[in-house]
Design a protein that fits this description.
Two copies of one chain form a homodimer.
Chain A (H helix, E strand, L loop, with lengths): L10 H10 L17 H8 L13 E4 L2 E4 L1 H11 L7 H25 L12 H29 L12 H16 L1 H7 L4 H11 L2 H8 L21
Antiparallel strand pairs in A: 1-2
Helix pairs in contact in A: 1-3, 1-6, 3-4, 4-5, 4-6, 6-7, 6-8
């Protein structure tokens, strides 16, 4: 797995799946730079060798195949880790949900970077205040309400209505991330999503994930990642 | 196919694949409202019936299966329309590129809607000027340069290095859209992407697409869609 070494970010959705399945994997970004790790190492891998390169981390190398884009990685490892049912409709629905999560994640990112990724938050704060207010008022309830309804219509236990899938692990991370970034808004909005919160609680107690979350492999949220806590944005 | 009836938008990537393959399909949004069409019709389909609902258009119904998210629809119809090779690495790479296009499309949308989708462009114009400037300076050359390099490394003819795929059709639409939205910036940047332009030209001349593009099924670009031309943003 190739991802920035200091943040949860988009890579965390992949880490959660690998950890939940007990898969053997190497986080190249967390290896020493001397052996090709670190941020320099993951950047280097994006430019060398033959074959299609990813546009950005995270990406995964498995058996010589490089796979970019978070939802694409999950679609690839899901069946191999028994984290999505084998039938095509389930896989399509799982991918659809993963892409909706990806859209949400991009919108969360843009609450603190509404003008440009290359600028610091402090250089786009007036715009961030406006964008975050709109996100909290309209988008956050819309996404969470959609996930809650989807879960209820699937029977209330899992997002696909069958065994736990990578989509359920994503729901855990969405709740965690929004609670970290927007605790005041989330406290109000999550009252309307009881089944999603119950799912979040069940995922957190899955034995391998519980170990992972308590380990130092689980990086803390911070203000370099995607879910950032700036109190002034949590209106 | 369920998509807004008045715009190209994200639905156009699906239309291009269906049209290129000569597939039989119905655009529900362009049917009269009296028979369940129009914007009202596509919204209605998102709330009725059983099974997973999409978060937003476009979505496709095929054989009772509802499929949301543009890249997910392309991954589903690609093999069925012979618009992606059958091997897994090709499909994964195609999906990776489609998701990178989706990211670009979202960034294009946010050049005119950097604060909130629900507000009019006129109500977020100062922020749009800043975001569009950053997009043109950094992001547009980065995306187009990436696609150009990918194409060159794949042999220079198609994005996957084999027969024409839905990714090539997407490249056509990316060039078309950026030329419409940012003609001045694009005139400068496209000098650095000759292979991408040549691919654009080849796709435009594919017989079924050429007919489609000349027909009234091809909606014109306009300022309700994703690629919008506001001269003040084309710095």
């Amino acid at each position: 797995l190739f991802y920035w070494p200091g943040i949860q970010g988009r890579g965390e959705f992949v880490r959660l799946a690998l950890e939940d399945a007990g898969a053997a994997y190497v986080e190249v970004g967390r290896l020493p730079e001397a052996v090709g790790g670190g941020a320099a190492g993951i950047m280097q891998y994006m430019t060398i060798g033959s074959g299609p390169k990813p546009f950005a981390p995270p990406y995964l190398e498995h058996g010589g195949l490089f796979i970019g884009q978070t939802a694409n990685i999950l679609a690839y490892i899901g069946p191999r880790l028994d984290l999505v049912p084998a039938d095509e409709p389930s896989r399509i629905t799982a991918m659809q949900h993963a892409l909706t999560v990806a859209d949400l994640v991009t919108e969360v990112h843009d609450t603190h970077h509404p003008v440009a990724s290359r600028l610091h938050y402090e250089d786009q704060k007036p715009e961030a205040l406006k964008r975050a207010a709109a996100f909290i008022k309209d988008r956050m309830p819309k996404y969470l309400g959609y996930f809650e309804r989807t879960l209820v219509e699937a029977g209330g236990e899992t997002m696909l209505g069958g065994p736990t899938s990578y989509v359920d692990l994503e729901m855990f991370q969405v709740v965690e991330g929004l609670r970290y970034a927007f605790p005041r808004a989330m406290k109000r909005i999550e009252k309307t999503t009881p089944r999603l919160l119950a799912l979040h609680g069940r995922v957190a107690k899955r034995p391998r994930l519980e170990s992972y979350l308590a380990s130092d492999r689980r990086l803390p949220f911070n203000e370099d990642g995607i879910f950032r806590h700036y109190p002034e944005l949590d209106v």
